[in-house]
């Protein structure tokens, strides 16, 4: 049985507003997620679309909120 730590993955994304890279922690126990998180650098809202493909892999698409 896998624990919650087995589903957590840290990745680096680039903000679609300012272009700066920053790290986010993904929970891959949920097959598909869509949520808004502020950029850690410029504080603009970023839409995250995360699809878990395997236990340790995901497709992450980031875009500006409102696009």
Question: What report would you give on this structure?
Answer:
- This protein is mainly beta and 67 residues long.
- The chain has one domain.
- The chain has strands spanning 8-14, 21-27, 32-38, 45-54, 57-64.
- A three-stranded antiparallel beta sheet has the order 3-4-5, with no helix packed on it. The chain has a two-stranded antiparallel sheet with strand order 1-2.
- A hairpin with a 6-residue loop joins strand 1 (8-14) and strand 2 (21-27).
Write the layout of secondary structure elements.
Blueprint lengths: L7 E7 L6 E7 L4 E7 L6 E10 L2 E8 L3
Antiparallel strand pairs: 1-2, 3-4, 4-5
In short:
The protein has 67 residues and is mostly beta strands. It contains no helices and five strands. A hairpin with a 6-residue loop joins β3 and β4.
Could you list the spans in which at least 5 consecutive residues all have pLDDT below 50? none
- In round numbers, the mean pLDDT is 88
How many beta-strand runs?
5
Gyration radius over CA: 12 Å
Shape descriptor: globular
Q: Helix-strand pattern, N to C?
A: EEEEE
Number of helices: 0
Helix content: under 10%
The end-to-end distance, rounded to whole angstroms, is 40 Å
Sheet with most strands = 3 strands, antiparallel
Sequence of strands across the biggest β-sheet:
3-4-5
